[in-house]
Amino acid sequence: MKIITDSTADLPKELIEKHDVEIVPLTIHLGERNWRDYYDIEPNEYYALLRKSSAFPTTSQPTPQNFVNAYAPFVEKDEPILSIHLSSKLSGTFQSALLARSQFPEARIEVVDSFQASFALSIIIVMCAQRANQGYSLEEIADMAREIGPQIETYFSVDSLEHLRRGGRIGKAQAFLGTLMKIKPLLKVMNGEVQPIEKIRTRDRLLNRFVELVEQAARKYSRLLLAVGESDNSEVMTDLLGRLEGISGVSLIFRGKLGGVITSHAGPGALGIAFVKDVLK
Amino acid sequence: MAILYLSAKRFKLCIIAGAELVIKNRYHLNKINVFPVPDGDTGSNMSMTLIAVVREIEALQDVSLETTVKAIAWGALMGARGNSGIIMAQIFSGVAEGIEGKERLTAEDIAFSFSRAVKKAYKAILHPAEGTILTVVRETAEAAVEAAKKTSDLVYFLDEMVKTARTSVERTPELLPKLKEAGVVDAGGLGFLYFLEGMLYLVKGIAIDDATIDEENATANMPDESSVRQLNNRYCTEFILKGSQILEDVLKKDLSMKGDSIVVVGDSRLARVHIHTSQPHEVLKYASALGQVSSIKVDDMLVQHTSRLVSQKSTKTSSVVAIVPGDGFKEIFNKAGAELVVDGGPTQNPSTMDIVSAIETVESSNVIILPNNKNIYPAAIQAAEMTTKKTTVLKTSSPPEGISSLLAYMDEAPYEENISRMDEASRRVKSGEVLVASRDVTLGGIQVKTNDFIGIYNGEIQCSFASINETIPVLVKSMHEPSDEIITLFSGEAVKKSDAETIQSILQKSFPDKTVELYFGGQSHSHYIVSVE
User: Which residues are CB-contacts of B132 (< 8 A; sequence separation ≥ 6)?
Assistant: First the structure.
């Protein structure tokens, strides 16, 4: 089974290689310049550019043709395809993939809306890859992915809500926009959309909130899969991971970086965690 | 056996019994209310006023008569609502003045102080009308003076007062044509009679039960609908005016150009004003030129009469009311999610009724109050007890604690969860302030000179210097711990923006690894409020 996703999964290189995942890139536009996410620009390079830029970036979804091109070689080889993507509430990427899928009516392709983004989407990909290794069928794995997607709990904070606002991805978190005091908003991805959770002032408090959330879930599910990601906020992430270390039952699948497209909407300085009950063991 | 005097405790019980009887009969009083306008709220207004009195004295234990009576007067003034409520408040405050220095009350004392009180009540009303509560209290006071000459037995004495009051109430339709037209007696006067009866029952040892509720004539004597339609001054407007030199007579005269049913009570610093007007905004504009206007209540009596207030159901799980000192804090709290922000601070404490009004105004029936000041906490607690809404007062003792608490509030979280989150959040910030010393003093080993700047944290003076630029860093040093991240300055009303920015950069240099933020607080009592978290 071939897994195809898009660049907003922010799947780390070693996992791309390990599970032989095909990535279809979205495109970043900043001022006069354009890049294909990851293909033309690496996250660290983009953080530096974005911090210096006075312009705000925009992004565009892959065309259906991009997906047709991605599917074609595997359809030819008669290999089943799991095409799993960024929440349809946040992007038209899923829509493009669906259109591409209709070009191959006879092929075994399952297109899945993850209701997630970035490291949270990657958790599903890793789980699907493991299921594939265990010999499950494409349809069984797609069903699991559709079930797991909405169950993943994704929390993140951003340095400023400005990028989310400009990109139109702020959802209900716009309620936090008017706050005069400088805050580190704690946000959640729920039903595929960004929701406000809490207005936090200090880094220490923010990290403790993340820890509390993981502890709560670990108590509830006993075994948790955890993935984390940040944009140009590596030191703080190290601090957070240190605090998460002692919690039993939690396995960290990977520590990732937010790619260019996600960073275009979250801004540099973002920090996030995603976890879900480990159903594989 | 004759009862010859009332102790403080017994007098307190009498007042509570009187209040109880009025409260029990409030719906009947509402129904027969036609004068000066049939807005159907006399019973409710008198009840609210008396509830304020009862709350004020209920908790008093083993205190002197003077303290008790003062508490009664204060409670009434604070809670006074409507014409009749304000007149009751005047009577209580007149009684308080009349029995100053007494340890117990005899019939003579009551007669004397009550007569004084009546004079005071007449003074409060711009155009005293006969056939109202004023007539009833005046005639009752005259009878009291006569009765006290004949007897010192309080049961007989109070009985005489009640008899006179009843005759007087029954006579009100003869004096006031509007009452006769509607076929009712004066509601305010009747309310006063209930109050006296309640006192008498207590002295006699009779329990107040449902049998004393006057219901039979109520529906038959409903005021005539058409009388409302002629209302010129349809807005019943009430507010509290705080100023330095309020001239009652001037105020009353000026107000009489803008409406009628004018009642002004209070002193030169604090007055409660009631007026029926067609232009409430003009009235409030005029008043705000004289001082600080608060506790504003404007009711459209036409609407009130046709469709008495309907309570609204809300979907919001909780509403936050914050009490803050200064315009800057007002904006900060507003934008951070407080539904209603009430003026208040060390030198401008809001009254219990201000807080009650705020609680009643917000959308949800579950309310969280952030008092943001130790001295306001008791009033907030009292307010919480007086409302039927579920109300929790958090122990925020400074604006930064309030902000920290408010930031933890979540719109969609259940009420109890918000309370525990907010309570916990309020303890995550330390706050201090910098103000000017008003006199020479040595405290905790620190010598303070008049006009020096003092830094206060944890209720204690931490430092004192002639220069504010020196005071703030030393104060912050005494507050901060290595794990702290943010130092926040809230500049006061008197501070220039450029001066505040200078201090911000001084602090940033002294604490290079912390973030130093500056906001306009607008508080009048201190130059800076500073928080560390």
Answer: B35, B172, B176, B186, B188, B189
Show the tokens assigned to A103.
């070009």
What pLDDT is attached to residue B372? 95
From chain A, the residues in CB contact with B519 under 8 A are: 180-181
Rounded CA separation A107/A159 (Å): 44
Q: What pLDDT sits at residue B247?
A: 82
Alpha-carbon distances of B59 from A131, A195, B13, B63, B425, rounded to whole Å: 70, 47, 12, 10, 32
Number of CB atoms found within 10 A of residue B167's CB: 14
Give the B window 304-343 contacts with A, CB below 8 Å: 331-332, 335-337
By the 8 A CB rule, do A233 and A266 touch?
no
- pLDDT value, residue B361: 76
Q: Which of B332, B410, B421 sits opposite A181 (nearest CB)?
A: B332
Percent over 70 (pLDDT), chain B: 90
State the amino acid at position B495 in one-letter form: V
pLDDT value, residue B217: 40
Distance of CA B229 to the CA centre of its chain: 32
In chain B, which stretches have pLDDT less than 50? 210-211, 215-230, 304-314
pLDDT in tens, B105-115: 999 999 999 99
Our measurement of the distance from residue B167's CA atom to the centroid of its chain's CA atoms, rounded to an integer in Å, reads: 34
CA pair distance A134, B132, nearest whole angstrom:
92
Whose CA is closest to B21, among B54, B59, B60, B63? Answer: B54
B253-269: pLDDT as tens digits: 888 888 887 877 777 77
Using alpha carbons, select from B375, B497, B476 the residue that is nearest to residue B433: B476
Q: How far is CA B444 from CA A216, B109, B435, B448, B465, in A?
A: 46, 50, 17, 10, 15
Low-confidence ranges of chain A (pLDDT < 50): none
For B444, the token pair is: 């905790």
CA distance B415 to B250: 48
Most A CBs within 10 Å, among B404, B427, B487, to test the A interface: B404
pLDDT of the residue at A222: 87
Whose tokens are 């957070």? That residue is A240
Tell me whether residues B331 and A181 touch, CB distance under 8 A.
no
Nearest-Cα distance to chain A for B392, in Å, is 21
Query: Cβ separation of B336 and A203 shorter than 8 Å?
Result: no
Alpha-carbon gap: B489 to the closest alpha carbon of chain A (Å)? 11
Classify each residue of A86-114 as buried b or exposed e, where b means 16 or more C-beta atoms within 10 Å of its C-beta.
bbbbbbbbbebbbbbbeeeeebbbbbbbb
Residues of A in contact with B335 (CB under 8 A): 178-180
Before B36, cis peptide (omega within 30)?
yes
* DSSP label of B318: -
A187 Cβ neighbours under 8 A, 6+ residues apart: A155, A156, A157, A158, A173, A194, A195, A196, A197
Chain B residue with minimal CA distance to A178? Answer: B335
